[in-house]
Each structure stands twice: as C-alpha cells, then as structure tokens.
Specification:
- The protein is mainly α.
- It contains four helices and no strands.
- It has one domain (9-111).
- Helix content is 65%, strand content 0%.
Length: 120
C-alpha cells in the first residue's frame, strides 16, 4: 500500500514507517534490495578497478609515455596491490604510574573546570 504523505504529519509518517518495518516480508524485501544494491556497487567497483589498472599498465608499458608518468603509473599499480603501504610506528613512552597519571588528569580537568576539586 502506498501512502500519500503530502497531507500527513511527520509523526504520522514515522509511525506508519515503523509499523511497516515490523512486517517480516517487508524487512526481508528491503534487506534483499539492499544486498542487491551492495552487490551491484561492489561489481561496479571491481570493474572500475580493472579498467583503471589496465590503463595504468598501458601507460607504464607504452614507449610513448614520458618516464615520470611511467613511474607514477607503476607506483599507482604497486599501491593498488599493497606493495607500497605506509607504516607508522607508534611508540608510547611514559614512566608515570597509574596514580600519578590520574592525579595529572584530575589537575588538568580541574583547570578546565570539567570537574570540581575534591572536598576536604
């Protein structure tokens, strides 16, 4: 059943949609349609990735391509297959104990007036 929402209040529209979503056939249909849409998008992405990879390969292997463009094409191809991943090493150095860290955090929070100082 279709609804003419032009004359409906927003609360009525929300209520009607909530009621429709409680029906298992409707939720199954919506789930199926979302899966279909997601699969179509995935297939389009795979197709586009193939197209781009093919064009980059043509650029990298063509005798007419300038050397700097060849390097850029090969770099892009390498990144597309995970050859050139940027790795960041995160090192945490902290000699403070947990009570000291809690004390520093409370002092900063008090300075920003996020918490009240402890009552004495």
């Amino acid at each position: 059943m279709a609804y003419d929402t032009a004359t409906m209040l927003p609360a009525t529209i929300y209520r009607a949609s909530w009621e429709l979503m409680r029906h298992s056939k409707i939720t199954a249909y919506i789930s199926d349609m979302m899966n279909h849409i997601n699969e179509k998008q995935r297939m389009q992405a795979v197709g586009m990735a193939g197209f781009v990879s093919e064009k980059l390969l043509q650029m990298a292997t063509s005798d007419d391509t300038p050397p700097n463009v060849k390097v850029a094409a090969l770099t892009a191809l390498g990144r597309s297959v995970g050859m050139f991943t940027d790795k960041k090493e995160v090192k945490t150095i902290n000699d403070d104990s947990l009570p000291e860290l809690e004390q520093k955090l409370r002092a900063k929070m008090e300075a920003l007036r996020l918490v009240s100082p402890p009552q004495k």
